[in-house]
Specification:
By secondary structure, the protein is of the alpha/beta class. It is 25% helix and 20% strand. The strands form two sheets. Strands 3-2-4-1-5 form a five-stranded parallel beta sheet, with helices on both faces. The protein is globular. Bound molecules: S-adenosyl-L-homocysteine (SAH). This is Precorrin-4 C(11)-methyltransferase.
Length: 248
């Protein structure tokens, strides 16, 4: 069996119990070495075969899985955060389907959740935003035109921007084109939940200089929205004047 396991955002104890138990029983682990904390590997049993996928192609990853599977090993494919977000996991699952190799997916704590925790923030504040947009700037992977950041910015919803820490000047231009002002609140969370995490609050207009001053050009989330400000409405759910199914 092959298990796609979300390793969580960084801290070694932010993997799920299920994920950790699978590591403890794995005969082979293929981990995304560029972002997965290597501390997870110390829970692997003796003799576990370990591959860093950073230097492998999709075909080589599948070949290793096929080989391990043939030898009856339980295989953990360890992805950073949760594999459903920029995880390049679908293509692996499709190739395993073709080979009739079974797999399961174990969710993980995505870095966007880790970043909210580090910011001690709530993305969905009543009266501010009830929507979280997860997106990225186009890089070598194109982004469909309808999802251009300037268009998404028009919603003024909470925005969490992945894979774009090296593109902060064009990102800022797009946010402003979409209607944000230079003063709109923003944050950069670098290596959320890792020991060397940095949480930097700034504004849309100061994103690039804040990153430059702190030497950040990768492994960061750019977070934008008025939820980072201090105005919001309290929740109806916990309001004394509001009754519901569990509190008449
Ligand atoms: N599947 C992952 C995302 C992989 S894409 C997840 O759910 O988090 C890689 C990008 O994720 C990085 O470029 C960065 O933008 C973001 N990222 C991953 N881990 C991070 C962390 N600990 N702190 C901040 N950003 C992180």
């Amino acid at each position: 069996m092959i298990y796609f396991v979300g390793a969580g955002p960084g801290a070694e104890d932010l993997i799920t119990v299920r994920g950790r138990e699978l590591i403890e029983q794995a005969g082979m682990i293929i981990y995304a070495g560029s972002l997965v904390n290597r501390e997870h590997l110390k829970y692997a049993p003796e003799g576990c075969e370990i591959f860093d996928s950073a230097s492998m192609t999709l075909e080589q990853v599948i070949e290793a899985m096929e080989d391990g599977n043939r030898r009856g090993l339980d295989i953990v494919r360890l992805h950073t955060g949760d594999s459903s977000i920029y995880g390049a996991v679908r293509e692996q699952m499709d190739m395993l389907d073709e080979l009739s190799i079974e797999y399961e997916v174990v969710p993980g704590v995505s870095s966007f959740c880790g970043a909210a925790a580090s910011l001690k923030a709530e993305y969905t504040l009543p009266g501010v935003s009830q929507t979280v947009i997860i997106t990225r700037m186009a890089g070598r992977t194109p982004v469909p035109g309808k999802e251009d950041i300037a268009l998404l910015a028009e919603h003024r919803a909470t925005m969490v921007i992945f894979l774009s820490a090296g593109l902060l000047r064009p990102l800022t231009e797009k946010l402003i084109e979409g209607g944000y002002s230079k003063e709109s609140p923003a944050a950069i969370v670098y290596k959320a939940t890792w020991p060397d995490e940095k949480v930097l609050r700034c504004t849309v207009g100061t994103l690039a200089e804040t990153a430059e001053k702190n030497g950040i050009s990768k492994t960061a989330l750019i977070i934008v929205g008025d939820f980072l400000g201090d105005k919001y409405q309290r929740s109806k759910l916990y309001h004394p004047a509001f009754s519901h199914e569990f509190r008449p």
